[in-house]
Amino acid sequence: MRHGVKLLSVLALGAMVLAAACGGTSDGDKTKTAAAGGATTPGATQSAATPGTTAAATTAAKATTYPLTVTDMLGRSVTIAAKPVAVAAISPTTVEYVFAVGATSKTRSTSVKFPDAATSAKDIGPSYQPNLELIAAEKPDLIVADSVIQPQLLESLTGLGVPVVYVGAQVFTDVPKGLRIIGEVLDAQAAGELAATKLEKTLSNLKAKLPAEKPTVLVLNGSPEDFYAAKPESYVGDLVQLLGGNNVAKGAPDVGRFPGYTKLSLETILTSKPDVVLSITAGPPGGTTLTASLSSNPAWADVPAVQNKRVSEISLVIYLQAPGPRAGDALTELSKLLYP
Amino acid sequence: MSIVAAAPRVRSERRSTAARTLLAWGAPLALLALAVVLGLSLGAVTLSPARVLNGLLDRNDPLAHTIVWDLRMPRVLLALLVGASLGVAGALLQGVTRNPLADPHILGLTAGGGLAASVAIRVSQDVPAAALAPIAFGGALTAAALLYGLSWRGGVSPVRLALSGVAIASMLTSAITMILVTSNLTTQASLSFLAGGLFGRGWDEFYAVWPYVTAGLVAALLLSRDMNILSLGDEAAQSLGLSVERTRVFAIAAAAMLAGAAVSVAGMVAFVGLLIPHLARFLTGDDHRSLLPLSAILGAALVVYADLLARVVDKPVEIPLGIVTAIVGAPFLLYMVRWRA
Question: Which of A30, B109, B320, B334 has CB atoms 3.0–4.6 Å from B195's, for a disulfide?
Fold first, then answer.
């Protein structure tokens, strides 16, 4: 059992190292975004930063009145006495939420590389075991924790005597919801609403343009030796489903440590003939990617996606490690991969 | 003449015995006191001694108070309770089995407690700290009953007890591994304390667990005289009027209570129960009346130091407590085995 936990930490470590590497490769995105003025997707921040332009005009900038009582994404009712000025976001997703509404987090988990401004926040350790002393030392007046990966920290965090708001992103619709909650909590309702509306618009625009013919899709996550298929219940599976992709793993039981993922036999995969294979490789940087390993594996040679060279590597960070405000980028990228 | 010559020798012997007793008790107590001071003073955040004191006394320094009183203090106290529990449980089990390799880890008591705790967490992740302690105690006690039952053949021999224990431990540990690898990520995170660690433990856990530890320690002390008689061998003990089996049952139950309490807050911390009784025996000899309390003090000191290392060595990341106790404990045990041999 100690072996199990060790394995888990080694995997988590691997994921972190990889995340660091992915952060490096997505530098292009980062500079683009920074140039646009800050937090989430370039467009969203721009309009958030300059209210008064088209989209902003439709949204009345409502000020939050404190004390404020909100229902967070664990369904808890949280009361916040005054406008938070020192926010501690403690997971990759929650850090992105806070920056997406134009606010700043004093803390970040080790793997966070986005947005640029977040990298100068205090590193408080891995998101599954954030250092409580370091969080307290930042004297936060609000802690933003992750409702998907950190519910088990609830008792420890509330013990710090600071209000704790939980937000997260298990499915796409969680993201606009989370943005609105954080917008309200941080008295940035206009920015939150804008980012949320922008996301919803991105989705409806993409949906409107979907061709009639939908591809059969397989999304894999893991290493070449051991990988799992994302079901529609997972975050990336939900995005694929929203874009009309027929998920090969639909209806399979949960298998493995990630909820919403399953294990498919090679036979199932071969008979389901996926048109598109998307892979998220977890492992040391520079190692063989799932994409490379599948494409060169003779057993996969008859899979349409392999034959038509439609096996693509997608980012571990935005689809798995930090699902959230960058969902717009994710949807746009996926729509290009599903409908080239 | 002979009387005159003997008198100073008796005096000096008495003085040296007194000095040795002072050393045997004073050194571990000083070590424990230092451990507590360091445990409260050091951590991921650096605080000056003055601020640590302010935090401790709650004098107008809310941050220091949160860090020292709400985060460090309960962890230090829990480490103390866990160490004392494991040290005494180890001493009891080594006495009962008359086997120097016995400890709650090796005989499957912590695995029993760990299995019960992980089943509970697997069923509902919201198990409160107050419920986890009795659940783990129940698991450890069940493992102890299994251990005793399987070793019974018209009486329990120490060798059979040790061998069955090893088998039960590996069986239960496999079951825990099974639960862990078939769990999803969030359940695994809730179970991560089983690797041995006090991450995120606070006052709630302390309040939940101290009654069990206190009860177990008191029971152990009450048994110490009988444990001494038992160590003479079953037949000799019986002829001295001791109910051998009853003493064994009580001692194993007390060890199970202590091991269960420890595992419910700190998971499976290896090596403390094995190492500490040897160290205590080296300092004070085989008399359980001093062996048991000394094991409690030394065990407490070891785990407080180990948790301190776990917190600060690789900060802000915490390394599992069980790994620290093994890394610190193993070479020390080897040294003692060679040195004493």
Answer: B320
Q: Quote the Cα angle for B294-B295-B299, to 5°.
A: 120
**Residue A264 Cα, gap to closest chain B Cα (Å):** 16
Which range has the worst mean pLDDT, A134-148, A165-179, B154-168? B154-168
Going by C-alpha positions, the residue among B35, B102, B29, B31 that lies closest to residue B277 is B102
pLDDT in tens, B156-184: 777 888 889 999 999 999 999 888 888 77
- Nearest residue on chain A to B171, alpha-carbon basis: A1
B186/A149 Cβ within 8 A = yes
Helix, strand, coil % over all residues of chain A, rounded to 5: 45, 15, 40
Encode pLDDT of B266-282 as tens digits: 998 888 999 999 999 98
Structure-block tokens of residue B7: 């008198």
| CB atoms B45 and A1 under 8 Å | no
| Gap between the Cα atoms of B126 and B44, Å rounded | 28
Mean pLDDT of the region A16-35 = 38
- List CB contacts of A269: < 8 A, sequence separation 6 or more: A218, A229, A248, A303
Q: B48 phi and psi, to 5 degrees?
A: -70, 155
Option in A128, A136, A149 nearest B66 (CB): A136
Over the stretch A194-253, which tens digit does the pLDDT of each residue have? 999 999 999 999 999 999 999 999 999 988 888 899 999 999 999 999 999 999 999 998
Do residue B180 and residue A5 have CB atoms under 8 angstroms apart? yes
Q: Are residues B272 and B299 in contact, defined by beta-carbon separation less than 8 angstroms?
A: yes
Cβ distance A1 to B194 less than 8 Å, yes or no, reads yes
Residues of chain B neighbouring A129 (CB-CB closer than 8 A): 192, 199-200, 317-318
- B89 has a pLDDT exceeding 80: yes
Does the ipTM surpass 0.85? no
Cβ-nearest to A132 among B129, B185, B200: B200
Is-contact A185 A84, C-beta < 8 A?
yes
Residue B191 has pLDDT above 80, yes or no: no
Q: How far A273 CA sits from the closest chain B CA (Å)?
A: 28
Rounded to 5°, the CA angle A200-A202-A207 comes to 95
Choosing among B46, B72, B125, B186, which should be mutated to test the A contact, i.e. which has the most A CBs within 10 A?
B186
How would you classify residue B196: left for phi > 0, otherwise alpha for psi between -120 and 50, otherwise beta?
Answer: left
Average pLDDT on A68-95 reads: 97
Using CB atoms, pick whichever of A4, A137, A156 lies closest to residue B200: A156
Q: How close, in Å, is residue B83 to chain A by CA atoms? A: 19
Type of residue numbered B185: L
Residues from chain A contacting residue B194 (CB–CB below 8 Å): 1-2, 5
Tell me which DSSP letter residue B96 carries.
Answer: H
3-state class of B106 per DSSP? coil
